[in-house]
Design goal:
The chain is of the alpha/beta class and 542 residues long. It folds into two domains: 336 residues, TIM Barrel; 124 residues, Chondroitinase Ac, Chain A, domain 3. It contains 16 helices and 21 strands. The strands form four sheets. The chain has an eight-stranded parallel beta sheet with strand order 12-11-10-9-6-5-4-13. The chain binds (2R,3S,4R,5S)-2-(hydroxymethyl)piperidine-3,4,5-triol.
Amino acid sequence: MKARILIFVLCCLVAFKPKAQNTVKAIPHLQYYGGNAELLVDGAPYLMTGGELGNSSASSAAHMTPIWPKLQKMHLNTVIAPVYWELLEPQEGKFNFTLVDDLIKSARQYHMKLVLLWFGTWKNSMSCYAPGWVKTNENRFPRVANSVGGAEEIITPFSKDALQADIKAFSVLMRHIKQTDNKLRTVLMVQVENEIGMLPDARDHSKLADEAFNRPVPTKLISWLNSHKDKLVPEMQKIWQDGGSKTSGNWESVFGKSPATDELFMAWYFAGYADAVAKAGKAVYPLPMYVNAALNAPGKKPGQYPSAGPLPHLIDVWKAAAPDIDLLSPDFYNPNFKYWNDRYTRPDNALFIPEHRFEDGMDAKAFYAIGHYKALGFSPFYIETDNITAGEPLSQSYNIIHQLSGEISKAKRKGTMDGVLLSKDADTIRLQMGDYMLTVSHDLALGWSPKAKDANWPLTGGIITALANDEFYVAGTGLVISFKPVKDGLRAGILQVDEGIFVNGKWQPGRRLNGDEDHQGRHLRIPLGEYGIQRIKLYNYK
Ligand code: DGJ
C-alpha cells in the first residue's frame, strides 16, 4: 500500500513539474556583490565590448547600412546609439519609432546588443535635441539665465513643463522598447540625457532658479550627508564641514557663498530631473539606466567647464538626488585614466565607460578597465570612424576579452583577477596573485627592440586571472611577466606555458611556448603588437 502511495506521489510530482524555463527571458539588470557588479543579460553575466556611434549616425538607417557589418567585424557585442527626441516626437504627442525600430532590427541582424542614449532635454549641456515645438516655446519651456540675465539654449531644470514633456516622451520610448523587445532583449541599458552640465556660469540665474536657491537645502540631501558622514567624497566633506556641518538653512547658509555652492545647487536639480525621467521610464520597462559625465579639466572653476553633471566631486549629490539612476559613468577625453576610474569605482557605483576618445591605446585601456576596475564595459566614441591604426588593435583586444569573458566573470567573483596598464613612465608594476609576486613590465622595458629608445612607447595592457595559486591566464598585449614565490627562500620556475584560445568558453591550447618564446623559462611574454592569451603553470625550487 505504502509503495503505491509513494508511486502516486511521484507521478503527481512529475506531472506538476514546472515546464522548461519560460520563453520570456529575464530583463537585463545589474547585480552588485561584494564590491563588484555585473550586468546580467538573459540571466548570465554580460561583459560589454562596445562602441558609441557618432552623434548623427543613427539619424539615417541608410547611413548605418555599411556601418553595421564593420562594427561586427570589430568584435563589438554592443552598439551604443542615440535616440533623438526631436526625431522621436517631431510634433507634440506624435511619435515616430522608425529609427528605433531600425536600430533594433539591425542590431539583431548583426548579432549585437544595444544601449540607447536618450538625447532628451540635454545633450552636452545644451538643449539642441529638444524638438522644435519645445525650442520655440520659451514661455512654456524656459531657458536658464546667465549671470547677466541673458537666456542660454539650455532648458532650465526648474521647468515643470519641460520635465513633464521629457518624461512623457521617454516613457513612450520605453513602452515601445518593451513592446518590441521584451522577448529578445536586444536593448540592455539606457543612458538618460547626455553629459548634463551648466554653462557658462556655475548656476542658473533665472527667476525659478533664484527662488529655489533661496529655499532650504532639501532634507533628502541633508539626510544623505548625515548618514554618509564618513564616506562623503573629500570635496563634499570639506564644503559641508567648512560651513559648520549645518543641517538646515538655504544653500549659501549651509555651504557658504561660492561657485562650488552654486554648482552643488545645480547638481541637485539636474540630478532630480534626470532621476524623475529615469524613474518614469523604469516604471514602464525597468532597464538599468545611467548618466554620463563630461570630466572637468583640471584648474577650471565651476561654470568654466560643464558644471553640476555627475562628476566625482558631486557623486554624493547625484546619489542622494537620483536613486533611480544605476550608474554614474565617466566619458574620457581627458588624461589621467587611472585617477578618474579610481573615483568612479565604488561599492555603490560600478565602473562603466560609455565613451573614450577613439585613439591609440584604447586597446590597452579596455584590458585595464576590465581587469583592474572590473568595469562592466568599455566603449570608444565615434566607433565607426576609419582610424584603422587605432581600430584594429581595439578589435584584437575585444576579440580576446570576448574569449576570456567566462573566466573574467568567475575570477571577478572570486577576487582572483587584476589588470595592468603600462607606459614608458609607468613601465613596471608588481602584483601579488596566488602564491606569487608577479613583476609585469612593458615589453619595451626588455630593451631588446630599437623602439625601446623612442621618446614615447605605445600603451600596453592586460588581464591576469588566477586559476589556482600557481596557475594563471594572462591576456593582453606588450607584456613581460616574471614570477617570484611569496614564500622566502624559494625561486619560481615555469612548468609549462601554452598559448591558446577559448572556444565557447573552453580553453584550447595551441603552441607550447618555450625556448626563445619564454626566454628559456625566465618569463612569460606577449610581444608588443601581438594580442594573445597564455596559460602558465609554475613550480618552485630552492
Ligand atoms: C562627448 C559627448 O557625450 C558625445 O556625444 C560627443 O559630443 C563627444 N563628446 C564629442 O567629442
